[in-house]
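Chapter summary example: a protein plus iron/sulfur cluster.
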Amino acid sequence: MAVCIYVPYKTLTLNQEMTMKKKVTFTQREPIGSSTYPRPNDEPNLDLINAKLKSSCLEKDRCSTIYVHIPFCNQICSFCGFNKFVKPKDQKEQYVVSLIEEMRMYANTTYVQSLDIQAVYLGGGTPNSLSSDQLQRILNFLTSNFPLSKECEITCESVPTNLDSVVMLKQYGCNRVSTGIQTFNKEVRKEHLKMRQEKEELIQSIEFIQSNFDNFNLDLIYNLPNQTDEVWFDDMETALKTKATHLTLYPLILLENTPFHSDFVKEGKYPIPNQTREIVFFNWSLDRLKKTDLNHCYTSRDWAKKGKHCRYICLNAENNQVLAFGAGAHGYLAGTTYRSHRILENYNSETLDKKRLPLERQCICTKYELMQRYMVMGLRLLKRDMRSFEEKFDINWKEIFYEKAKVMQNSGYIIINDDIIEFTKEGNIWANNVRTYFEEEKSSSVGYTDTVGIGSSGRDHYGSISRIKKD
Ligand SMILES: C[S@@+](CC[C@H](N)C(=O)[O-])C[C@H]1O[C@@H](n2cnc3c(N)ncnc32)[C@H](O)[C@@H]1O
Ligand code: SF4
């Protein structure tokens, strides 16, 4: 547990005044922002969690989200480090049974019934690698047993094949789809991503989505091998011709233990992705999207049409509770961050045989850690209203974080306007570095996906992310 003694900013010492004049220059772009903080490193105390679940949550903490992890894919992509497996049908079915059992353990509690769930995210892995029947059972259980708000946003991640099963989820309230395109370019897909679908087929899949959902996201990756400027421009223009209401643009992240990593680093097949190019791609995309109706860039990787921000992303950044289900999923409940067992066999056996919550790690947060969480999660949003800090912690945010925030302002990354923190254009490029700056060094975070640590990686295992080349 991180312990920190803080000094109110009104009584700054000379030393602190000096620190505030400091400037920091980030040189290596941090590709991974913390998606949960502080990292759950401790053995779980199930008695304590079960005790907390017996009482209602405070009125001010009711707003929450749900994340459900589906750790299966039909094919493993060469760059991906998420917690996912290719498994036969019977193992998928066993997992679905365990998952529903885990959800049942939470659903019946006073605490969970006192929540107001405003967004649900079915993520992966690949939810549509399950059968329609399995997906429907999961969503049916969720919508019938959890206190979902009337306007609840329900997103399902997918790959652009077998989309029928996703469309079937409409009848259970699924109202948003996110699908991973990565690139439309035939050569890059075939040669580097080993993906079979060609541009025309991808466009047909997107058309199928848009004929069924009026709110959907496309994921694209920039700085892939042989993705020239022209290829990226075409990727963007093709995406812009669709009716996508949201785009998520990821820089390529090289993760150890992925085939990509071996190709780039060990076998030297391709030059290591270059940071200058990554920033050029990013700035170009920023400028291009500014001229379209997808001009609401609200995190360093998410662009939305007006009113189409992903509510799940925003609510989590605003530090609401996250009920997370599934193998390797990370949650945040009753002041505790937690992670479930990543290995499927352990997850299944805890849930089905031992009939207990399948938690593998937890962190019961101190008040200071909760404050830090507020900053680290909140600065995922490029414009953050800090006034709710005082409602939550009975102290103004500046009392705790002014010193660090001032350094970030002096360095040109953010602008502090009273209680609003806003990233500058330069700050947007270095947004994950800025967030990391507010973390306690010894309490590392989990990176990248929303609620699932990427396998053995994440920033707690720095070595497993290959740094892109500095110039
Ligand atoms: C984990 S996937 C889940 C949804 C679905 N399976 C898919 O492939 O779209 C979400 C997105 O993460 C992104 N992603 C995964 N690994 C990445 C990496 N190493 N670098 C950059 N983006 C990555 C891809 O854009 C992918 O669409
Ligand atoms: S990117 Fe998506 S489909 Fe590919 S391996 Fe990762 S989770 Fe599976």
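Key point: The chain is about 35% helix and 20% strand.
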